[in-house]
Amino acid sequence: KQEVTQIPAALSVPEGENLVLNCSFTDSAIYNLQWFRQDPGKGLTSLLLIQSSQREQTSGRLNASLDKSSGRSTLYIAASQPGDSATYLCALRGSTLGRLYFGRGTQLTVWP
Amino acid sequence: NAGVTQTPKFRILKIGQSMTLQCAQDMNHNYMYWYRQDPGMGLKLIYYSVGAGITDKGEVPNGYNVSRSTTEDFPLRLELAAPSQTSVYFCASSAPTGGTYNEQFFGPGTRLTVL
What we know:
The complex is a heterodimer of chains A (112) and B (115). Chain A is mostly beta strands and 112 residues long. Helices cover 0% and strands 57% of the residues of chain A. In chain A, strands 2, 4, 5, 9, 10 and 11 form a six-stranded mixed beta sheet that branches. In chain A, strands 1-3-8-7-6 form a five-stranded antiparallel beta sheet, with no helix packed on it. In chain A, a hairpin with a 2-residue loop joins β6 and β7. The radius of gyration of chain B is 14 Å and the shape is globular. The termini of chain B are far apart. The relative contact order of chain B is 0.33. Helix content of chain B is 0%, strand content 52%. At the A-B interface, β4, β5 and β9 of A face β4, β5, β9, β11 and β12 of B.
């Protein structure tokens, strides 16, 4: 069974810092990996999707990498802003009909 | 496109009551999913469907039922609600492209409390 772990569970940084969120997984047989953002009391917003054949994806200040051999993905956020404060979830699409395996998330607070 | 819509947004049930959580998508996606999210936890799969008339159990199906009579709709039924079903419920959909399943799109969620 796929296990997904996100470290750290919580992170508090001052505005302007570059930061890295980590996601590790136990089964490298994945189709893709998706990073989501979740604001308090809200649904999930997809940030980046990396296919299993890709190494990284970029969108604005966000960059996500994937290393299947080591079972790791990182989400890099450049020049963090208070508006980036949210919970970030990592999810893997496994081999069974597209279901996602989620980590518990990293709760990020960026203070002015 | 409205994307994935869910109703209601909030609901309080008494133990033993039943209800149906509604989910609809207008993206013509074949695959639809129901997840639940407990506080401080990741999402867990309850049921999923790969097309109209086809459903299957996920990781935590006990206490729930689903149906898929159309491509657009995927309601989740709770029978005999229990406090353990207090959670936030998310519906999602996706479409396969070739041999690769692409990103899932999520609804805004239904926050359910069972007292």
